Amino acid sequence: ILRSSSETPPVTLATRLKPATRTIIADTTTTATMSRRQPVSTQTSYVSRPVPIPDDFLAAPPPGPVTLSHVDWRTTKLPENAGRYAVVLDNVLTQDECAQLLRMAEASATDAQEPWQPAMVNVGGGFEILEPEYRNSDRIIWDEQTVVDRLWQRCALASGLREELAHYDTVARPQKGGKTPWKFDRFNKRMRFLKYQKGQFFRPHCDGPYDETVDGRVFRTHYTVHLYLNDSVAEVGEDNADLVGGATSFLSTDENRKVDVDPKAGRVLIFQHSRLYHSGDDVVRGTKYTVRTDILYELVRETREGLSLDD
Fold first, then answer.
1. Which of 120, 153, 112 is nearest to 138 (CA)?
2. Membrane-spanning residues where (predicted)?
3. Position 248 in a domain
4. Distance of alpha carbon 264 from its chain centroid, rounded?
């Protein structure tokens, strides 16, 4: 599942470990390989066409068991990541289900002729920028709670995952002391389908949280969820795949060491937003399809005693 390497990725960012939502806008004079122009921010909003979701889509368990493998950072080239959460789930979706999900995403796009549009970088406040030297891929955004709820039920078949993700503690301000508890609520309905073709990539970054308040309840994302929709040669061999490259690479802060998670159809990678510096490696051959969402947690205002996913 994991591959370690000491090869240096081709591009660095001076603003390491800042969330992707702030990196470009906060420092427009990074490395010489970044664009020297001031990126123009655009206010964006996304709508989708209604897509019928078959009642049987992801409704039954998959043919094989959903397996869970923790990333044990201590045994990798990134031991400094010890204690930071990352897991790989396999057999969450079948290849046919991945293909069906991709077709539904394309059907959700408002432009039927050009469903895939260049992926932009979120800079907050409903604004995004196009920075193809930093993020170079195409994207479809589809909001559909039914699909992500079913995806979560598939993921939760992995032994122990439900309990591991039941809560998340953030460190409070030092003057307040203690920690701020959050409880699992749901997968974020916003799915970002990504298409990387030869030469495309997502340069190193940390993922940033999404916040929302509904009827006085406070929600925030703390984990990224990546579902890979097609196989790579690294996982299944030359005879069974065309995709070369495109790994999700976790990196040291100097970008000299890395641990790769290679694409495999139906594989899900879940990892914490905070302090896990990573990139989407260049695609060398073929096309990579993946979908990203996040896990929303609700702020617990009183006690976390007896907390579970069913609270």
1. 120
2. none
3. yes
4. 15
CA distances from 109 to 83, 102, 132, 142 (A): 39, 11, 21, 8
Parts of the chain with a pLDDT under 50: 7-35, 304-311
Domain-embedded: residue 14: no
Residue 50 lies in a domain: no
Residue 5: what pLDDT? 62
Residue numbers of the domain that contains 143: 57-299
Asked whether the beta carbons of 263 and 288 are under 8 A apart, the reply is yes
Token pair in block for residue 159: 């032994």
Q: Give the largest CA-CA distance in the chain.
A: 59
What is the spatial distance between Cα 263 and Cα 268, in angstroms, rounded to a whole number? 9
pLDDT tens digits along 34-79: 445 677 999 999 999 999 999 999 999 999 999 999 999 999 999 9
Whether residue 241 lies inside any domain: the answer is yes
Phi, psi of 146 (to 5 degrees): -60, -45
Q: What is the CATH number of the domain that holds 268?
A: 2.60.120.620
